[in-house]
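Chain A, query sequence.
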Amino acid sequence: MASIGYARVSTEDQNLGPQLDALRTAGCGEIFEEHASGGERSRPQLAAALARVKRGDTLMVARIDRLARSLSHLLDVVESLRMRGAHFKSLADPIDTSGPSGVLVLQMLGAVAEFERSLIRERTVVGVRAARARGRVGGNPGLRARDPVVLGKLAASRRATRLARLTAEMEAWMPIVRRLRPQTAWPEVTVAVNAVLPAGSRRFTEGRLVSSVQFLVAEGLADAAIIGKAPRRKPRKGVAARQRACDAVAGLVAGRTGITLAEMGVELVRLGHRPPRGGASWAPASLTVLLGRVRLAGLVPPGSKWAGTRETASPGGDPGIPGEARAWAEKQ
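Chain A, predicted structure.
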């Protein structure tokens, strides 16, 4: 169980030294340093720090405002850590989610955040109504005008947000993808990934998992080989041979409506279809099994002597169909 540190200042001119000293004193063996505004949620070093934290580890900051400027962002980060079995600690604040008191403080902060969101929502609704009453239309003018610059900034922002979210959670499931792909098809990989996700987390659909992995490959965070095509599975040898024999029987009964079991067995050997248990000739019971499958598939023409369900030996001297084989065929 490791302590992972995160230190941030807003500009290159500010000094990270005091934060680094405090984090090292607290036992952080690895510290991620960031020069970015706290108002930006999609910070590369924060995403890397969150991706580094594993079950039982603790993400540590010198002060809460070094991690997040808004309470909602703080709670989102702490919740993502909790779902992975990790903890959060702020050295200058009474927050340490590995203990009950720190969890209590966090729950109180969560209640305050919910109240704050309700007030903001209420003020926003009132403001929008007042603006509409004055004839003003809300929204970004650049988006309404489909300005390429504005659209480009929006796309970049969404891409950065998605990257931050995926890098924060990928360590929970990406090792499964790396181990199974491309040898395993995506449906089976999706089942395996969902089996290791923490309780309460959002499950993957096959499409969302493939899209997420393709996005990580495009960002250089995953090997392109894992999105290659899975090899097609070859059918088992016995299954394939049985299907070929069924196809041959279907052709024989369709072309020769009066064919007998003995003649059918001879033709199968001539066509290269070996009996399932070896030997030089087909047993009546094995032929009846094939006929049952062909009849079940609706491939026996109405005029054939095998179109019914209770055929026995033909007048031409065919050996009778054994009782167990006939019962099996009738059940199909």
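Residues 309-332 have pLDDT under 50 and may be disordered. Residues 141-227 form one domain.
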